[in-house]
Amino acid sequence: MIVPAGVVGQAWRGGGRQARLARLLSARDVLVEPLTDAGARAAGVLCGTAGTTDVIDATVVLTARRFHATVISSDRDDLEVLDPTLRVVDC
Fold it and tell me: Mind listing the pLDDT tens digit for each residue in 72-86?
């Protein structure tokens, strides 16, 4: 499982209520993909091209493209604006 670092930031609030999320993120088969300068710029370009503003959604799309991955999300509509061919499983 690959989780873009920005997605962690959107979900993380700290404290004991996040124990399950903390366990998931520290699992051996989970990669938290860092947001680099190049990745941030690419996300900005994708947002500009699609006419959107959510850089985190753009990083999700770019990460899925890079790893040929399916996305699990409750934001299908927002993601499909960025890439209508994206494979999304609703949660």
Answer: 999 999 999 999 999
